[in-house]
Amino acid sequence: MDVAAPPGRPLVIGYGNRLRSDDGVGWTVADALRDDPRAAAVDVIATTQLNPEHAADLAAARLAVFVDASVAGDPPPAPGAYVLSRLPPPGLPSADGAPPPAWSHHCTPAGLQALAAALYGAAPPVVLVGVGVADCAVGEELGPTVAAAVPNLVDVVLKLALEATHA
Amino acid sequence: MNAGVGKEIVIDPVTRIEGHSKITIQLDPEGQVVDAHFHVTQFRGFERISQGRPVHEMPALMARICGICPVSHLVASAKAVDAIMATTPPPAGVMLRKLINLAQLLQSHALSFFHLSSPDLLFGFDADPAKRNLYGLVAEHPRFAKDGIALRRFGQHAIELLGGKRIHPSWVVPGGVGAPLTAEVREEILGGIPDALARVSGALAWYREQLPRWEQETAVWGNFPTAFMGLVGPDGQVEHYDGRLKAVAADGTVIHSEIRPDEFHDRVGEAVEPWSYLKSAYLTAVGYPQGVYRVGPLARLAVADRLGTPQADDELAVMREQLGRYPASSFHYHYTRLIETLYAVERIAELLRDPEIVSDRVRSVAGINATVGIGVAEAPRGTLMHRYEVDDDGLVQTADLVIATGQNNLAMNLAVRQVAQHYVRGDRLTEGMLNRVEAVIRCYDPCLSCSTHAVGQMPMQLQLLAADGAVLDEVIR
Q: Which terminus of chain A has fewer CB atoms gathered within 10 Å of its CB, N or C?
């Protein structure tokens, strides 16, 4: 039995370390969305890392879009480019089923989705936006390539989130 | 086991604490525990990093020490800079500093009890570690997982509303806070009070009922006489922001009725042992190592006459009726942590309902008026001291931080030894044995990232060594 997506607003969570140059791209996109009047119908969270507490946010969202720096893939996405992937709504966990992969300090989007389903009986479909990075050395600014991509990333994420409001 | 050869058990790293450490247990040739050490194996050195920085940067810089209790460092650091500026924050600034400090205490205590320690309490110390964790809570005791999440969210949301972000806010500044409290934020935080009160009260009721189950653990988990130290208010109530730093002996005899900030280093010594980056604090009036003392919720509720809020004081009275006026067992950190969590919710509501808190005057402005400043405050884990020396331009020459976990270091080592002596038998390591040794450390909720200023990780390692140092057995998980 699948867990129904909650009827709430779409949620964007941008996360990463803003002291590690391009690793902060998810946070930067979320910050831009918070200031964007087009995103008035979207809940936005900018955070350093995902924690179990975010499961409660997911449990109230009709769709969750996670934006994070990514070096996954062979080859990984080029700096500023992005890769979309989707997690369907999870099934209801059984009592002896696999536990959600969450811990006190750091969680994954899939872990949060499973945690929301297990604890609150509601979890949204999840879209992951993995952004390619050039440099994650110590630094408070995005590199020029990734910084230049931020406006487009904001548009992409906003479109994904707003599609959910019309679904 | 070979006759005539002693052994050592090492747990490395210890899990479900904030930071990275290991435990070694030394056996004699007969297989009896003769000693045990809690090692902290990380090093960062914030005191050195601070040198040369403008002192007004220190609160925001010091908040970066820890992602769990950044507000405590922010508050202690700001108080130290207040002293260098010879200024006093306006009343509303003080109230707002107290408010954010309590919000952090609440969310940190909730993490410690509900997510880190309650799996041991709910499933038992012999339970399968695959089940005895947050995952197991979600599957079998979802109420505890939800309560932990809800209380952490409440505290973190209050911090975010006040400080602009929930981790590493820089809203507490020298002279007060960065901005006044709005009526909207006040109402939003107040709106969460009833739910938070209900959740903590429910957990306390459960804990009281279950307490007899842990009679054996209570008897041997760091159950020994030590001094206690913590801040108290003018009427003897518990205090986390300011007040008198008081130290009492195990039977309540007053050792120091007040340790002024400028007396801190005369009254508290710090010994360095070769097996740990964590210094061992002790009361100089008693000497080393006999001057072992404890800080944190167990100690704060020992040095204070009362908490000062109605529900928490009722709970304190019940606890004292059950356990006595000065509970000695470190197992009772859990109980006192829950009572303090209840206090924090009540006190946050009291502060918010005070009309003064929305005053526009929240910051005093001054320059460099002294070259030494000391700030003392209570972090979730215990007393925290920041001391800075600056030059005439306000550039930091030396920074000295005395952290709660360091002050509990001697007591934690004694507790590990006591638990090991009770549970460790022979030359084989069992899951239940390992977990009890590890869990007694968890009672103190140590934050090793703070105490050594190191990056936190949470794995676990244990070794068994012979008297000659040879590794006889090792467990890593």
A: N
Report residue B148's pLDDT band, with 50, 70 and 90 as the boundaries.
Answer: very high
Predicted local confidence at residue B186, as pLDDT:
97
Q: What is the pLDDT of residue A160?
A: 95
Considering only CB atoms, which chain B residues are within 8 Å of A105? 67, 456, 458
C-alpha B441/C-alpha B16 separation (Å) is 10
Reply yes or no on whether the pLDDT at B287 is more than 70: yes
Under the phi-then-psi rule, with left for phi > 0, alpha for psi from -120 to 50, and beta for the rest, what region is B209? alpha
The tally of CA atoms less than 13 A away on the side-chain side of residue B21 is 34
Interchain contact, A95 vs B139, CB within 8 Å: yes
pTM of the model: 0.86
Residue that wins the pLDDT comparison between A4 and B17: A4
Identify which of B115, B135, B458 has the shortest CB distance to residue A99: B135
Band (pLDDT 50/70/90 cuts) for residue A100 is very low
Q: Is the dihedral of CA B321, B327, B329, B330 positive or negative?
A: positive
Q: What is the tens place of the pLDDT at every residue in B23-62?
A: 777 777 777 777 777 776 555 577 888 899 999 999 988 8
Q: Do B135 and A102 touch (CB under 8 A)?
A: yes
Rounded to a whole number of angstroms, the distance from the CA of A102 to the nearest CA of chain B is 7
- As a whole number of angstroms, the distance between CA A64 and CA A59 comes to 10
Number of other residues whose CB lies within 10 A of the CB of residue B186: 18
Q: Which of A56, A96, A100 sits opposite B138 (nearest CB)?
A: A100
pLDDT at position B448: 59
Report the pLDDT value the prediction gives residue B271, as an integer from 0 to 100.
87
B397 burial level (CB within 10 Å; 0-12, 13-18, 19+):
middle
pLDDT over threshold 90, residue B379: yes
Q: Which residue in the block uniquely carries the two structure tokens 């410690």?
A: B112
Which tokens in the block code for residue B395? 């550039």
Residues 6+ apart with CB under 8 A from B470: none
Do B67 and A48 make contact, defined as CB atoms within 8 angstroms?
A: yes
Measured at the alpha carbon of residue B23, what is the angle toward residues B20 and B29, in degrees to the nearest 5? 160
At residue A68, the 3 state secondary structure works out as strand
- Give chain B positions within 8 Å (CB) of A51: 152
Q: Which residue has the tokens 């831009």?
A: A32
Cis? peptide before A77, omega within 30° of 0: no
Phi then psi for residue B305, to 5 deg, are -75, -35
Task: Record the tokens describing residue B114, joined without a space.
Answer: 């509900």
Q: How many Å apart are CA B71 and CA B32, to the nearest integer? A: 44
Rounded CA gap, B234 and B324, in Å?
24
- The pLDDT tens digits of the residues spanning A51-62 come to 888 999 999 999
User: What value does the mean pLDDT take over residues B59-87?
Assistant: 88
Cβ A17 vs Cβ A6: under 8 Å: no
More confident position, B10 or A94: B10
Q: Answer positive or negative: Cα dihedral of A26, A30, A32, A36.
A: positive
User: Cα(A92)–Cα(B121) distance, rounded to whole angstroms?
Assistant: 27
A109-120 and B142-163 helices cross at what angle (nearest 10)?
A: 120
